[in-house]
């Protein structure tokens, strides 16, 4: 957990010195990214809000993900995390939003979308949302921990201005 604490502290410090606010839109992590950030005393200076949208209905109702997107591409897809990120930015006062949707396991995987696959979305206000995927090894806890770390790294990179 020290690694997650350090990554969250880096995000906090970078955002604090640059006067940036962060929002999260989480599915497979169930709020762990927001939890890592809010573990830091004074986090309200940088953490604006978090959306835990585990179900497809929540993704649509809370973040504005289109039903057509979920029907065509599924919850674990580039298109979905882009819309999750855009929705988080539009529904908050954040400067940076990160989203995650994945298959943490142990079940739910397919040959096209294996267990451990996670899609990440990142948006900085005024720029187009980015998306990338990773496949993490290990069990459910390993996948979720790796997802939190990678999401925090993406936010730190964005805060540094190197998210392009």
UniProtKB/TrEMBL annotation:
InterPro entries: CinA-like_C, CinA_C. It comes from the Bacteria. Residues 7-157 form the CinA C-terminal domain. This is CinA family protein.
């Amino acid at each position: 957990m020290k690694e997650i604490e350090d990554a969250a502290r880096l995000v906090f410090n970078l955002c604090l010195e640059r006067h940036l606010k962060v929002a999260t839109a989480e599915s497979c992590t169930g709020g762990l990214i927001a939890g890592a950030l809010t573990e830091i005393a004074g986090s309200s200076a940088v953490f604006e809000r978090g959306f835990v949208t585990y179900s497809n209905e929540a993704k649509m109702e809370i973040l504005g993900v289109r039903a057509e997107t979920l029907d065509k591409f599924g919850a674990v897809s580039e298109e979905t995390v882009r819309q999750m990120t855009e929705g988080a930015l539009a529904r908050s006062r954040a400067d940076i939003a990160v989203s995650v949707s994945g298959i943490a396991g142990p079940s739910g995987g397919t040959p096209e979308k294996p267990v451990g696959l996670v899609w990440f979305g990142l948006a900085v206000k005024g720029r187009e949302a980015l998306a990338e995927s990773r496949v993490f090894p290990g069990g459910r806890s390993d996948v979720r921990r790796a997802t939190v770390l990678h999401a925090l790294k993406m936010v730190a990179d964005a805060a540094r201005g190197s998210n392009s």
